[in-house]
Amino acid sequence: MAQIKHVAIIMDGNGRWANQRFRPRIWGHVRGSAVVSEIVQSADELGIKALTLYAFSTENWSRPLEEVSTLFKLLKKFLQKEKQKILANNIKFKVIGDIQNLPVDTLSLIKEIEELTENSNGLNLTFAFSYGGRAEILRAINLFQSSHPGVEMTEADLSSLMYRPEAGDVDLMIRTGGDQRISNFLLWQMAYAELYFTPTKWPDFTAGEFKKIIQNVSSRERRFGNVSVQNGLVDSVERAESNKASFLKGINS
Ligand code: FPP
């Protein structure tokens, strides 16, 4: 069974879930935030190493101000409510994205939890907030260029300059809500990710469905461009490089 280490989730369908119940869209986000804690707990129990949740994209800034402000409030409420659980479960927490414009009290709560969990060795939990995948890649390129002017960048350099390099490549991306897109989420890290789209809207998503998806995807073959199942992308890339070198040496000698 291939091990799924890093799971990324696009938590979609909150607005439609609420509209179907004749409630305002923000009700869907409120119900959706309760599901977040259930899935974090389940990921931890399933032995997943990293969980990255898309809570607010750069594109979400175009939503009505009331909705944006609800999402900000929910983030703060979630952190206040879950802080002790995060510490007790040895979770290593981080928020990624362009978060400088968050309210100061939310920012300091984020910093506090990030610092308190810096040395935790449990689940790597990441919230992507005001996040965009292209912006993350550009940020990494610009950081590299300013520290290494004129030097050619490698894939390893770029990976190391992502917001959260220790989470590694994404093994599985789940999107709830029925749409089949990746919406500018973790573009670099998802190069070889398995993709799973479920029609379930996020407020109806459960730990039971999450577990079934993990089991289902764990039994898929992951070949990373090779002919047989591989341990991971890095192994496969190394093997491809070494095969290529021997092959070229053979035909050129
Ligand atoms: C997409 O649903 C969801 C979001 C834009 C936000 C996700 C946020 C949560 C799950 C709650 C916040 C939780 C925390 C802890 C920050 P949508 O509004 O696009 O739904 P739709 O596609 O039905 O319109």
Question: Can you describe what's shown?
Answer:
This protein folds into 2 domains: 6-220, Undecaprenyl pyrophosphate synthetase (3-Layer(aba) Sandwich), CATH 3.40.1180.10; 226-253, no CATH class. It is 47% helix and 13% strand. The protein has 8 helices and 6 strands, in the order βααβαβαβααββαα. It has helices spanning 14-20, 25-45, 65-88, 104-116, 133-147, 155-160, 207-218, 233-252; strands spanning 6-10, 50-57, 92-96, 124-131, 172-175, 194-197. Strands 3-4-2-1-5-6 form a 6-stranded parallel β-sheet, with helices on both faces. Helix 1 crosses helix 2, helix 2 runs parallel beside helix 3 (65-88) and helix 3 packs parallel to helix 4 (104-116). The chain is globular. It starts with 5 loop residues before the first strand and ends with a helix. It binds farnesyl diphosphate (FPP). The site of farnesyl diphosphate has 20 residues, from helix 1, helix 2, strand 2 and helix 3.
Name the overall outline: globular
CATH homologous superfamily identity of the largest domain: Decaprenyl diphosphate synthase-like
Radius of gyration: 20 Å
Query: According to CATH, what is the topology of the largest domain?
Result: Undecaprenyl pyrophosphate synthetase
Strand order of the largest sheet: 3-4-2-1-5-6
Main sheet overview: 6 strands, parallel
Low-confidence stretches: none
Please report the distance between the alpha carbons of the first and last residues: 41 Å
CATH architecture of the largest domain: 3-Layer(aba) Sandwich
Bound molecules: farnesyl diphosphate
Q: What is the overall pLDDT average? A: 92
Question: What is the CATH class of the largest domain?
Answer: Alpha Beta
Question: Strand share of the residues?
Answer: 5-15%
Based on secondary structure, the structural category is: alpha/beta
Work out the number of β strands: 6
The arrangement of helices and strands along the chain is EHHEHEHEHHEEHH
Percent helix: 40-55%
Task: Please tally the helical runs, counting DSSP H or I stretches of 4 or more residues.
Answer: 8
Number of domains: 2
